[in-house]
Amino acid sequence: MSGPRVVRAPRGTQLTCKSWLTEAVYRMIQNNLDPEVAERPEDLVVYGGRGQAARSWEAFDAILETLKELEDDETLLVQSGKPVAVFKSHADAPRVLIANSNLVPHWATQAHFDELAAKGLIMYGQMTAGSWIYIGTQGILQGTYETLGSLAVQRGWGSLKGKFTLTAGLGGMGGAQPLAITMNEGVGLVVEIDPERARRRLEHRYVDVIVDTLEEAMTLVQEACDEGKPLSVALIGNAAEIFPELALRGIIPDVVTDQTPAHDVMAYVPAHMTLEEAARLRAEDPKEYEKRSLDSMSEHIKAMLEFQRKGAEVFDYGNNLRQRAFDNGVKDAFNFPGFVPAYIRPLFCEGKGPFRWVALSGDPEDIYRTDEAIMELFPEDEHLRRWLVMAKEKIHFQGLPSRICWLGYGERAKAGLKFNEMVAKGVVKAPIVIGRDHLDSGSVASPNRETEGMRDGTDAVSDWPILNAMINAVGGATWVSFHHGGGVGIGFSQHAGQVIVADGTPAAARRLERVLTTDPGMGVVRHVDAGYPEALAAARRGGIKIPMMKK
Ligand code: NAD
C-alpha cells in the first residue's frame, strides 16, 4: 500500500456488522484512529505517548474483519491489541473483552515491557486508546475544567479571573489545558516544544495565540491578568528551560502544573535540543537520551518546587513527573500534591467521574439533543449547565461527535436510560455509545495519581479495578477492558474501562441500568472501604448494600 493509511469511522444508519452492538465497536476502534482524533494514526498511536488502538495493522484489520462476522451471542477476546479468540457467550455478555499491557507485577518494568513490545508480543494501550473510547481533547477538557474550577474555589478565588497559570505540554490530553483555563476565566501560559502540536491546538481554538519568546509571552500574560481577561498563550520552548528561567527571573505564577509526557522518558524531550536532535539521539543512543531526559525533568521539577516555596499553587497533573525526578535524586519531588487528592477525590467519593458519549450517526445534532436532555434531567445543576452551554459553543468535534460531563452514582444510570429512550423514539438518528475514561472513581489503582494518598493507605491495591471490570462484564457492558500502565507508565497503574451501547432496545435498557449503576457504584464502595465520610453518605443516599458498612 502506498502513502499513509487513513482510517475514519463510518457514519449513518447503514450497518457493516450484524448488529448495532458490534457496529459500535467497529466504528469506535476506527474513530480512535481518525486523523482528527489520533495523535499519530500512521503508527496506530492514539494519544499519551505510545498509546495504541491495535498492536499492528494486521491485527487492526483482523479485528475489523472479526467484528463484521461477530454474532450477538459471541465474544471476541483481544490481548494487547491483537484478536486472539471468539467464543460463544450469550446476548447479554460483552461483545469484546480486552486485556492490554498486563504483566505479572515482579516483571512489570519498562525494560521488560519494551523488550516484549519490540518483539511484537505486547502493546501499550494507555487508557482509552486500547479500549476504543478516546474522543480527542474534549475528553480531558472536562476533567481539567473541573480540576481548575475546584482549585479556584478551594483557594477562595471563585474563578481563575486575573490569575496566571503556568503549565506545559499541548499533546492529546495536555492540549485541553489552555481552553480549560480560559473557560475558568483565567490566563494561561503553556510551554510546548513541538510547533506542530501548538498549531493544531490553535486550529481547534483550544489556544488563543502562539509566540516564540518568553518576553512576548509574558507581555501578553501580564496585560490579560491586569485586565482580568481570559487568554491562553502557547510558547514554543522546552519546559525544562522555561520554568527555571521564570523562577530565576522571580516571576511566580498563581498556579503551576505540567502535562509533558514524563510518564515515558523516551517521549519527554530533554532540554537544549531541537526536536530533530532529540529524535536522532533517541534512535542512536537511547541510554544517553534517558539520562538527559531524567536530568531535564529534575530541573523542570526543581523550578516547580521553587514556585511552590514562593506561594504558587503547584500540583502534579498525573504524568509521573514527581516519581521520575525523585528516582533521579530530587528528594523533595513529592512536596506538592497530585491533582486527585487535592481536588478530585471528594467527587470520586460520590461516584462522580468522566461520563462520555458518542453519536454513532456522526450527526452533531444528535449530541445537541442529548445535551438538552441532560440539562432537562438535572435542572438544579448550574455547574453542569454552564459546562454544556460552553461546550456546545467552544468545542470543535474531533471524529464522531461526542460529549462528556461528570456525573455520579444514580445520575449515570438515569442519563443512560434517557439516551436509550431517545434512540428508541428516533429523537436521535442512531444509537449512542456510552463510556468513560479509566480515570474514574472506582476503576483504577494508580498510587501516584487517582489513588494517591488514600486515607487507609491502600493506594496500590488493585483488587478494585479488577472487581470493577468483572462486575461490568457480568452486567453486560458492550466492551470491557483491563489495562496496566496507563497515564503514569508501566509498573505504576492498573485500570479498567467499560463501554455500553444504547441501541434503543429493552434489553439494552436493562444492561444500561445495571452497568451504569455498578460502574460508579464501585467508586462509592471503594471510597467507603477506605473510610471517606463523603462516600459513606453517598452509599447511604444511594442505598448501596455494603455488608460491613457502619450503620
Ligand atoms: P502527548 O504525548 O500527546 O503530548 C505531550 C506533549 O508534550 C507533546 O506535544 C510534546 O511535544 C510535549 N513535550 C514533550 N517534552 C516536552 C518538554 N520538555 N517541554 C515542553 N513540551 C514537551 O501526551 P498527552 O496525552 O498530552 O499527556 C501528557 C501527560 O499528561 C501524560 O503523562 C498523561 O498521562 C498526563 N495526563 C494525565 C492526566 C490525568 O491524570 N488526568 C490528564 C492529562 C494528561
Describe the protein:
This protein is of the alpha/beta class and 551 residues long. It contains 18 helices and 17 strands. Strands 3, 4, 5, 12, 13, 14, 15, 16 and 17 form a nine-stranded mixed sheet that branches. Strands 8-9-7-6-10-11 form a six-stranded parallel sheet, with helices on both faces. The longest helix is centred in the middle third of the chain and has 24 residues, at 286-309. The mean pLDDT is 96. Residues 39, 47-49, 140, 143, 168-174, 191-194, 197, 238-240, 259-263, 267-269, 317-319, 439, 449, 487 line the site of nicotinamide-adenine-dinucleotide.
Mean pLDDT: 96
Shape: globular
Number of strands: 17
Q: How many distinct helices?
A: 18
User: What is the CA-CA span between the terminal residues?
Assistant: 65 Å
Bound molecules: nicotinamide-adenine-dinucleotide
**Runs with pLDDT <50, length 5+?**
none
Specify the structural class: alpha/beta
SSE diagram, text form:
Blueprint lengths: L19 H13 L12 E3 L3 E2 L4 H13 L4 E6 L2 E7 L7 E5 L9 H9 L19 H17 L9 E5 L8 H7 L3 E6 L2 H9 L5 E3 L2 H14 L3 E6 L2 H10 L6 E2 L18 H10 L1 H24 L3 E2 L6 H7 L11 H11 L3 E7 L4 H14 L4 H13 L7 E6 L3 H15 L6 E5 L7 E2 L17 H13 L3 E6 L9 E9 L3 H24 L3 H10 L9
Parallel strand pairs: 3-5, 5-16, 6-7, 6-10, 7-9, 8-9, 10-11
Antiparallel strand pairs: 1-2, 3-4, 12-13, 12-14, 14-17, 15-17, 16-17
The chain binds nicotinamide-adenine-dinucleotide (NAD).
Nicotinamide-adenine-dinucleotide binds next to α4, β7 and α8.
